[in-house]
Amino acid sequence: MKRIFLLLAAALFSFAVAAALQTAELKAPPSSAKLVALGKQIYTQQCAACHGPKGRGDGEAAYLLYPKPRNLVAANFRLISTWDGVPTDEDLFNTITRGMPGSAMPSWGHLPVEQRWALVYYVKSLSEKPLTVRAPKQPAADGSGGEGIVRVPPAPPYNEAARARALELYKDACASCHGATAKGDGTQEQVDTEGYPTRPRDLTLGVFKGNPDPASLYRRIVAGIPGTPMPTSDWAYGDDAWHLVNFVRSLSGDTQRARVEMKKFEIVATRVKELPDHPDSGMWRATLPVNLHLMPLWWRSDRPEEVTVRALHDGKEIALLLVWGDETNDHTAMRPQDFRDAVAAQFSLTPNPPFFAMGENGKPINIWMWKSERQADLEPAFQDLEKLYPNLGIDSYPNLLRSPLEQPSRHALTLESNKTFVTGWGAGNIVSDPERKSPAEDLTAQGFGTLRARPRIEQKIDARGIYSAASYRVMFRRTLAPTGKEAVALTPGATVPVAFAVWNGSAGDRDGKKSVTIWQDLKIAK
């Protein structure tokens, strides 16, 4: 009993500390030219790739993203706590801190409080209209005519009668969009005020762009979401709105809602005497797993939700284990309609990594990538193009190096003794090399469109992937010491920024269409 009491007291203390910290964060410092300048600096590094250099939602990554990045100049913000479509400073701060689950907007809660407030003031400076919050004015009895910040009344009890009322309200006003089962399968042909397609939220997934706490949901239900088909609810105010809030929250759990938020963690590479040589080795139990939320850049409900990461090193080499769920084993990309499954680990070569994508000019990143069809190529029952296309017509070339027992001409792709007829191989393309021993590729990039393989002599990453029970387990191994100037250096005692990406072939993922994490900290234990 004493132990339970102590645990409860510790939990309450932690909750109180967290609440106090959040309250302290929301105390905005006064705006100043210095803070706006700091905000511009952070915006240029972390935000411009999506929102554009001038905030018009036209960044170089915008074409990869759905929903589209917000046009900060037009200032049509979604997550607000007012009746009249104007965000408070706290609204902007909370959105920057938490991000927008269900979109490509990650959490920036790991940034210092001052930097987040600096971003608030810089974002406000981009607006073409004044963001002035009106004095509070309570709405009429039917919920219409309100101004300023929405006042949230005390919540009534949520009992069987309240739930019955909520079901009635939901059926009458919400089901046409969100669907009878709340899975977002109602009206699909919708667009926002900027003409981009939008879809009703699947409320059972626990993916809320805004904070899912009761007060925030209350405000979104009664005041709507500006710029979207979600209207102001003059039909639901007071107790009725609270009943809907409680009903919507009952469709998902706190753990489920928390899991979709993209947060920064520390991944510790534990030091051991011997590294595992297989993804299913029991040696991986020597280090703690870290579950990271994956965010599809082009949002979809059917997605890989998490990737679990473990790391070990022996003072000479490091091993990473990446595990994620996938219902299909897509291990061929020979037909034009087929796409492979894949996973990658991305390392920043600088302590302050650029954005979460592909590096930037002068700030290269190092990528270790595993592809399922490269793994299949190394298996005994390797992939054969002629199995997929049995009537394939091929070009034949003379093979001057053939044995007297061989046929006088052979398919170009079987000329492993002569690079003359396999031009990619002859040019040093690692993808065309039939002698490669690893399904991993060592890549580098300095911004969008700059991805390239590192020299063949420096391709020293070993990898092995296993698929079973609807999941992948992929292991990477490499020396701690870098192989060349564009490879990441991993030193015991150091912390290196790392991020991860997963491609689901059956969903058509390829290139920039993928699910990603934000930057994490990889700590190499001494």
Distance between the termini: 39 Å
**Fraction of residues in helices?**
10-25%
- The CATH topology annotation of the largest domain reads as Immunoglobulin-like
Q: What is the beta-strand fraction?
A: 15-25%
Helical/strand content category: alpha+beta
Give unreliable regions as ranges: 1-21
In total, the number of strands is: 18
Description:
This protein is α+β, with helices and mostly antiparallel strands and 526 residues long. The chain has three domains: 29-126, Cytochrome c-like domain (Cytochrome Bc1 Complex, Chain D, domain 2); 160-259, Cytochrome c-like domain (Cytochrome Bc1 Complex, Chain D, domain 2, Orthogonal Bundle), CATH 1.10.760; 266-524, Immunoglobulin-like, CATH 2.60.40. 24% of the residues lie in helices and 18% in strands. The protein is built from 13 helices and 18 strands. The strands form three sheets. Strands 3, 4, 5, 6, 7, 8, 9, 12, 13, 14, 15, 16, 17 and 18 form a 14-stranded mixed β-sheet that branches. Helix 6 crosses helix 9 (239-250).
Summarize the model shown:
With 526 residues, the protein is α+β, with helices and mostly antiparallel strands. It is built from 13 helices and 18 strands. Strands 3, 4, 5, 6, 7, 8, 9, 12, 13, 14, 15, 16, 17 and 18 form a 14-stranded mixed sheet that branches.
